[in-house]
Amino acid sequence: DILWDIRELIPLVFLHCKGKSPHWENQEFADIERNNCADSLACLSYLMFVQHFGIDCFPIVFSPSYLLQCNMTHIEVLLKRTEESILSKGLDLFESCLLRMEDNSLLHQYLEFRNFINVPQDLVKVMTLCPIEHLRKKSLNILQLFIDKFDAEGKYTLFRCLLKTSNHAGVEGYIIKNIKDQIHLSLTKARDNIWFTGHHLISLLDLVLLLPEGAETDLLQNSDRIMASLNLLRYLVIKDCESDNQTGVWSTLAKIEQNFLKPLHVGLNMSKAHYEAEIKNKKENRREAHSSNTVCSVTVSGEKMPAMTTEMQLQVLHSALFTFDLIESVLARVEELIEVKIKAVLDENS
C-alpha cells in the first residue's frame, strides 16, 4: 500500500537517499538515524528488485544501467555488513541488477562513480574473508558478471584497479586469467580491440609481468598470481608472432626478462634451497626425537602453522617444493618458446 501511494516518487526515494533528516544535537543519534535510513532503503530495494514486492508500481522507463547505478549505493550498504542474511541480500540485489543487462553494454564512464569502484572491492573482501563458503563462491560469480557487463575500456580500467587494490594473489591470478581471455578475443576477432593490444596492453602487462618484491617475493604465497602470469606470457609468445607483434610483447621482452623472468629464477633458487634445508633439518630432528609423532610448529609463507607432527610438517614442506617445481617447469617452457621464436626470426633474416 505504501509503495502504491508513493508510486511516481519511488525513483526519487532511490536517488535522494541522503535527503534531509531532523537535526539532532547528539551526533550519535544522527549517525544511528542515517545508518537506519540507509539500511531501510537498501532492504526496500531488495524487496522490490529481488522479491518483486510492488515492482508493478515502479516505472518501467528506466534502463538497466540506470537501475544498477541507483542501486549501487544500496548494494554497497548491504555488502559492508557481516551477517549472512544481510550480506546475501546484497549479493542477490547486485546479481539481479546485473542479470537485467546485456554483456558489454555497461559504459566505462560508470567507473567514474565512486560506488562502481567500491562495490567490486567489497566483493573481493567477501571472496577472500567471508567464512561462509557459498557466499564466497557467489561473490566470485557476481564479480565475473560485473566484469562481463562492461565495454572493453571498462574491463581494462576495472582490471587495473583490482590488480592494484586486491592485495590477494588468488584474486590477482583470477584477474590475470580474465586479461588473457580478453586478449584472446582481441586477437581472434576481425575487429581490433585497442585496449587489449598495442601500447594499452603493454601498460597493463607492466602490472602483471613482475614480482611484487622482486626476487625476495614469497613465491608460495604468490603462486596463483605467478602461475597465471606465466600462462599469460606463454599464450602471448605462442599466439603473437614477432613479425606481427599485435600485443607488443616482443617490443617489451627485455623489460619482462628484467622485471619478471630473471627475479623469478633467483627467487626459485632461494626458495627451493630454503625449503630443502628445512626438510633436511626436520628429518634430522625426527631421528633425534623419541617418536616421529612429536608435536612441533612450523612457519610457512610467513605464517605460523597450527601444531603438527613432524610427518605432517614434512608433507607441507614437500608440497611447497612441488609448487616451486611446477612454476619452474612452466618458466622453462616459456623461455624455450621465446628462444625458438627469436631463433626462427634470425634464421629467416640471415
UniProtKB/TrEMBL annotation:
<dbReference type="InterPro" id="IPR013877">
    <property type="entry name" value="YAP-bd/ALF4/Glomulin"/>
</dbReference>
<dbReference type="GO" id="GO:0055105">
    <property type="term" value="F:ubiquitin-protein transferase inhibitor activity"/>
</dbReference>
<protein>
    <submittedName>
        <fullName>GLMN protein</fullName>
    </submittedName>
</protein>
<dbReference type="GO" id="GO:0005737">
    <property type="term" value="C:cytoplasm"/>
</dbReference>
<dbReference type="InterPro" id="IPR019516">
    <property type="entry name" value="Glomulin/ALF4"/>
</dbReference>
<dbReference type="Pfam" id="PF08568">
    <property type="entry name" value="Kinetochor_Ybp2"/>
</dbReference>
